Amino acid sequence: MTATTISDVQELLTRFTLVELRHELKVAEVNTHADSDDFGYFLWYQDICRSAIGIKKGEKAAHTVSRGYINVEAVRARSDIVRIIEDAGIKLLKSGRNFKGLCPFHHEKTPSFIVNPERQAWHCFGACNAGGDVFSFVMRIENLDFRAAVKKVEAQC
Known about the structure:
The chain is an alpha+beta fold. The chain has helices spanning 6-15, 18-30, 39-60, 72-78, 81-87, 134-142, 146-156; strands spanning 65-66, 69-70, 93-95, 98-101, 113-116, 121-124, 131-133. The strands form two sheets. Strands 3-4-5-6-7 form a five-stranded antiparallel sheet. A two-stranded antiparallel ribbon has the order 1-2. The longest helix has 22 residues, at 39-60.
C-alpha cells in the first residue's frame, strides 16, 4: 500500500471542489473489495480524499456556533447541496456545471430540477417553479421550519 504524502493531498485540493472530492471518495469506497487486486490503491485513495475533504471543510468555516447561536452563513458555506439532495433520495445526474433530476415536489417524466453546486442553489423549471438554497430545500422536503432546517443541514455537514 502506498503511503499518503502531502503532495498527494495537495494535488487533489487543486484538482477538485469539495463536491467532487466527496464523489471521488464515494467511487473509491464502492471499488474497495477485499478480493480486488486494487484493494490497497483504493484504501490509499480514500485516505487522501478524506484528508483533502477535511482541509476543504476547514477552509470554508471555522466555527458554526457561538454563544448558543447558530451561524447560518457558516453552515451554508460548509454544506454540500448536491449531497444533501441526493441523501433525500433524489437521483441527480451531472449536466455541465449543474446537476439535474426529477423534481421531488411534483410528478414529472422529464427532469426539470436543476442544482447548481457553485451557487449552492436549486430550481425547478417545471410545474412548481420553486427554487432556493439548501435550507429552503430541506424545509420543503422535510416539512420543517427554518431553524430546524438549519440544524438538520448543520448535522449533515
